[in-house]
Amino acid sequence: MATTARSASALEELNLTATKPRSLWGDAWRRLRRNKAAMLGITMVFLYVFIAVAAPWLAPKNPVTQTSNNSLRPPIWVTDNPNRQPNPEHILGTDTNGRDILSRLIFATRVSLIVGVVPQIIIVVIGVGIGLVAGFRGGWVDNLLMRLTEIVASFPDLLFIITLTVAFRETLFGKAFNGLLLIFTALAVVGWTSLARLVRGQVLSLKEKEFVEAARALGIPTSRILVRHILPNTLAPIIVAVSFSIPSLILAEAILTFLGVGMRPSVDPANPLPTSLGQMMTDGFNNLSSGPWMLLFPVLLLSTLVISFTFLGDGLRDALDPRDAGR
């Protein structure tokens, strides 16, 4: 009994208490929370998502409704022009058509997030699917899929997107959803190649692991091995790649619309997607001398949106890096 008591006392002194091991995702979340920039990015992303979802209730005015005099009004803090005084009903002023800029920014946020997410879903489906099959099957299947990937990747992305949008812009497909459907397709067509290569590289290393060989020896179907054993182990790099790809898609849509081959403007008051940041930047650039705020506000919003996703991507990359597992 005395020996047992002494042993228990020694264990208490050394504080050798059993602790529950953390999972990979739990450990990654712990490291992510320590990254202040990443947490700021997450907060801003959730804020923008809330604004996009609640746009009809947050917007003070209809984004396409013009004021009675259709006049350009500055923000409420700009009072240096006696001939053009601000209107308290329009906090950020109006554009040359008398449309409320704040309301248009709120709805443009919705468009930017949709453009960042919808094509990304298509990219993930195509890129992950091709990468899994090419890496696991190998042989002529791998060669065929990778040659196809290289052919698509050899075209300059922006030039290919512009060519595609111009070619189909006047068709029914190009006019659907104010041209957004065509933009989704164009962005997805050129955006899956890098993700396919990334997944293929991960699969090439994973398929030689012992747990995959054991699954093969047990006669588990190939499709189940891919979905249940290999795909979960490739999620970390896929998540990081997606978080970095979303701001690129948002920028691409803004550039296309600014160049005049992107989203079409809408004058329908009931349209849930009436404008985009690219359209607002075009209007602001055309009226830079008379209303510089028309360009300033969408540029600031686009910048903060892209930076938020970039901060989030940096944080996810550091948190999911296995070399940092000991931190």
- Tell me the fraction of residues in β-strands, as a range: under 5%
Rg of Cα set: 26 Å
What would you call the shape?
A: elongated
Give helix % range: 55-70%
Mean pLDDT: 84
Label the structural class. mainly alpha
Order of helices and strands: HHHHHHHHHHHHHHH
Summarize the biggest pleated sheet.
Answer: none
| Count of helical stretches | 15
Distance linking N and C termini = 41 Å
Structural overview:
- The chain is mostly helical.
- Helices cover 67% and strands 0% of the residues.
- It starts with a helix and ends in an 8-residue tail after the last helix.
- It has 15 helices and no strands.
- The protein is elongated.
- Helix 2 packs across helix 15, helix 5 runs parallel beside helix 9 and helix 5 packs parallel to helix 10.
What descriptive keywords fit this protein?
single chain, 0% strand, 15 helices, 67% helix, mainly alpha, 327 residues
Quick overview of this protein structure:
This protein is mostly helical. The chain contains 15 helices and no strands.
List the helices and strands and how they pair.
Elements lengths: L1 H13 L9 H11 L1 H18 L1 H4 L42 H37 L1 H16 L2 H12 L3 H4 L4 H12 L1 H14 L3 H8 L4 H9 L4 H24 L18 H10 L6 H27 L8
Helix pairs in contact: 2-15, 3-5, 3-15, 5-6, 5-9, 5-10, 5-13, 6-10, 7-9, 11-12, 13-14, 13-15, 14-15
